[in-house]
Structures are given as structure tokens and as C-alpha cells.
Amino acid sequence: MAEAYSNFAAVYDALMDNIPYDAWADYLHGLLVEYDIASGILAELGCGTGNITERMADFGYDMIGIDNSPAMLDIANEKREQNHSSSLYLCQDMREFELYGTVAAIVSLCDSVNYITEPEELTHVFSLVNNYLDPDGLFIFDFHTEHYYRDVVAEATIAEDRDDISFIWDNYYDEEEAINELALSLFVKEPSDSDADDNLFRKYEELHVQKGYTLKQMKQMVADSGLTLLAAYDAFTHEPADEECERIYIIAKETRNKNSKKQYIQ
């Protein structure tokens, strides 16, 4: 996980300009409000460049963005300054994230949890979430399913050529392990001081590894972590999810257990 998005960070937003972040944030906000969380402190795991974080700050939440990529967080902090928000960005691995106290809700979007490829580690992440939520606090996350990796993008190659940026995504799917490896080749135009250098591009390469989970597996990990499952929706709808969905939203709530809750340090 540590190397993912290291070179991609500088051009991530340019290449992801097809993602309707406003609609995604509206959907997330609607889910939170349905469960009476219209304000308070929210933490986002895998916040990336802060696209969702800053939009949730605009809804009035006190945001904490957590990501393990310093390069992505540098861009997120630039957005925070431009947005004049009070968002706090922390460079942490979600597998061992720490907060100063409990929060009203924790969210994780853009299939960030799929980067946790060991079920035991993902269950531990969910346990940490349970520990850092206020009583009856909410956890909302999305994930790409095994069906998506196996039947939609497996062995697919996606390429796009733009004036300043080009990329090639090569997907390799291991059906036995339900692991999708995405080999990313980036070609980024270099700044130039002369016409002679106008067509100079630099190549960057990264490998992204994600695991496809079934809905059944995800429900079991939520239960094993101590959280209580409230709903599983086909993404961006309120339709019940099933194993044929490509992206699923899970809504779970904090459940008290023998572990003591963290208290805020005043």
C-alpha cells in the first residue's frame, strides 16, 4: 500500500475528472442525515487528495482525512487552504490509524478498503473503527466486489491519450486469490522552456493491488469486528445489494464491547 499513488498523486485529479464527486458526496451526506448525523466530527479513511473530505466540510462537518500517501495529502492540504476549511489531514496507514478521541462517523470511499488484501487485517481496521466511534456512531464505506474484478475489469486494458497526460491501465486478475493487480503506466508532459522540448514526456510506473470481496465475506468481517450491520446498498441507490453488484455501500454502527473507548485529550 505504501507505494500506491506516489507518482500518480500529481495527476490524480486530472485523470479522475470523470468521477462525479459532487453526486458521491451528496449521496454520502444523505445517508448520514438519514441516521441523524448532520454535524460533528467525521474521519475519512483513504481520503486521497481530499475530494470527498472537502465536500463534506462544505456540508458543515469537522473533517479528519487519513491517508498513507504524503504526496496525496500535500494536494489535499492545498485544497483545504483554497477551501478555507479547518480539515485536519493525517498521514497514517488505515490498518493502524489513531485518533485523539471518538468521532460521530467514519467513512471510506473510492474502494479504499479493497487495498487491504488480507481479511484479518481488514477486520482489524473495522475493529479500530468501532473503537473510535461515538456511541451509536456510524461507519459508511464502499467496496468493489469480487464480481467486479472477475467479470468486469479482469484482464482488461484501459488507455487514454491526452495533450499533457496519457496512461495505460493493465489489469491482471488472480481468480483463486481474488486479487486484481493494476499495472499503471503514466506519461506526463515535462515543462519546457523551448519548442524543441515541447513533446518531451516522462514515464512513471506503479502497481496497485486490490482484493475483491463478496458481500457475504464483508458482512462476516463487519460482524467479527464488533460493528452492527445496518444496511448494504447497491452503490448510489437504496436498493439492497447482492453478489452481482459492482460497488456496494455498507452502513454499520458502533457497538459497545469490552474494549474501552478512547477519550478526547483536552
From TrEMBL:
Recorded superkingdom: Bacteria
Record flagged with keyword Cell cycle: no
This protein's record includes keyword rRNA-binding: no
Keywords linked to the UniProt accession: Methyltransferase, Transferase
GO biological process, alphabetically ordered: methylation
SUPFAM superfamilies: S-adenosyl-L-methionine-dependent methyltransferases (SSF53335)
UniProt GO MF annotations: methyltransferase activity
Record protein name field: Class I SAM-dependent methyltransferase
Species: Coprococcus hominis (ex Arizal et al. 2022)
